[in-house]
Amino acid sequence: MSASLNRLVDEMLANAFSACGLPTETARATRSTLPELADLQCNGAMPLAKSLKRNPRELAAEVAEKLKDQPAFKEVSVAGPGFLNLRLSDEFLSECAAAQAASPDLGIVQLPADTVVLDYGGPNVAKPLHVGHLRALVIGESLRRINAAQGLNTVSDIHLGDWGLQMGQLISEIRLRWPELGPGETPDLTMDDLQRLYPEAAAACKADPARMELARAATAALQAGDPDATAIWQKLRDISLTAQRLDIDLLDTHFDLFLGESDVQPLIPGMIADMRAKGVAVESDGALIVDVATPGDNKPMPPLLLQKKDGAALYATTDLATIVARVRDQDPKRIVYVVDQRQELHFRQVFKAAERGDLAPGVELIHAGFGTVNGADGKPYKTRDGGVALLKDLIGEAIEKAGERLVNDDLTLDRIELAKLVGVAALKFADLSSYRISGYIYDADRMVSFEGKTGPYVQYACVRIGSILANAEAKGYQAGALQVTAPAERALVLECARLPEVVASAGRNNAPNEVADYVFSVAQAFSRFYTDCPVLAADTEAERASRLALCGLARAVLAKGLWLLGIAVPERM
Ligand code: ARG
């Protein structure tokens, strides 16, 4: 038996529809809106009745007739204007739960192993990660896992901002401050130094055209491969990435590639020549532009600036060259950019230019944008003194607050580890549980709470099931055949059965919030089950064995769901 309950029911519905001579497109079951009356419902008769000019209740009744004697259903009835209400049988639910528990992927449908490139993070050299990077890292990592869980071949790339005038500004600043440096030498700098130097250099360049000229010259030297400029650049890049990786690792975020804007610069001249030859890149006032407007655009689409008058490439040029490199090196089916929604126009222009230039034939380009992390005032989150909140401080705060909830006594080492797991879970879950395009209000106290829709609540549910199972094992009790009967058992099985469709939908929509909503409802269904149905103290041995098996399934589903969100589950809490 295939593992997915919902798929099996859809198949039975489709067979019943066609046995009635009806088309099967609308033969789909959804969760019942009235769980006291039914487990699932099918609304498919109503649109059909309309197009066939028939009575919807009559149509539904014909379909019900075909279904009602099948062993999967306890009760099939017609309600309201023509809903089909489906009550599943205990046997069918039990079999489906057992099949799901036995499936290595818990029934998650495996797709062809196409490659998906995920671009997230995008930190710039010389700048520490800040609140703006939180969502890119957390959503990007979750999407990587949601794709991987469906058998897709994922390639995650951090896409460092390591090129352009900013680098020239810093290189020239270093030369001015350390005039005694010999060829190829770089002063010993820390990330804190860079963090101070960079804004000062940028401000000096802005204030003084002669200073800006130095920055331009340094940029040009770097771009021409000058060894001294390159040595300083390399050092700056290493210092930054080493510091940034501390936050990246704390967030348990994985990158397959640490490539950057610099890596694709050699591809730019050829790409531009190609786009010119195709007539896609055209001259305008000495610059090169790509017309990306399409008749019927519902938003303004200014042309994409490919090359400035002075020959300099731009942010969009680099993104186009990165598409060329990814197509060449990864042969992806899809490239997903997890980048601030405020860059929406940029990506629309880049994708359209890639299409006009035929740079990525057959590759789906998606901007999975996200809204801002906001303060209590609803405006982008700032520190108390109005500064940019650093990512390491946000992670630190989450860990600290989680630690306060966990212990009153002194922190032993593994308590610190635990605070880390819980704090990071809290931070991630709070971020992932709102739809990515909407911003959300950052509230450190709320997110670490063990009550309500939070990471620690779901984590705790998973840990609690683990300890029930451990207790059972200590007593020598074993899980056995699943035989669900109680309403709370049935509800938990139905909830677990939704995992495959939730993962498929979250993948299609690039929407980790669907997984976050889901794990929360599984945790709630478990808690109702645990209140209503004694496990270790069950009435009979068979009942206990069945409930232990159900605990095992719920734990596996929760652990998988949390993994998809990038959240690890501690052994105890
Ligand atoms: N470094 C860019 C910034 O700070 C973000 C990069 C996003 N990714 C991309 N492929 N454009 O705005």
Automatic annotation (TrEMBL):
Catalysed conversion reaction: tRNA(Arg) + L-arginine + ATP = L-arginyl-tRNA(Arg) + AMP + diphosphate
Pfam families for the chain: Arg_tRNA_synt_N, DALR_1, tRNA-synt_1d
EC number: 6.1.1.19
Residue ranges of the motif 'HIGH' region: 123-133
One annotated GO molecular function: ATP binding
Database matches in SMART domains: Arg_tRNA_synt_N, DALR_1
GO BP term (any one): arginyl-tRNA aminoacylation
Gene Ontology CC: one annotated term: cytoplasm
Annotated PANTHER family: ARGININE--TRNA LIGASE, CYTOPLASMIC, ARGINYL-TRNA SYNTHETASE
Protein name as it appears in the record: Arginine--tRNA ligase
Species: Labrys okinawensis
Gene: argS
